[in-house]
Amino acid sequence: MFHLFRKTKINPVTEKYDPNIQKPVLRCSICTGEQVAGFKDLHTGKFTDIMLIRNEKDLEAFKEQYGVTELTKEF
Prior knowledge:
Blueprint: E1 22-28, E2 35-41, E3 47-53, H1 56-66, E4 72-74
Parallel strand pairs: 1-4
Antiparallel strand pairs: 1-2, 2-3
Protein name: Aspartate dehydrogenase
Organism: Sporofaciens musculi
């Protein structure tokens, strides 16, 4: 049977996080308040978005999934 309304599971880590090349960043919109967690390349400045953060639970899941303890906020 096909389930329309089932609880989604957290996807396994698809992006590799290398602290020598990338830093974890929480990108926040000033206008809408939207928050996206991802990684910023230290050399190029390119931001790779990983997860939309809707609440503290999402933020904790991101930190646990990638082994991150601290995020810097960017606006």
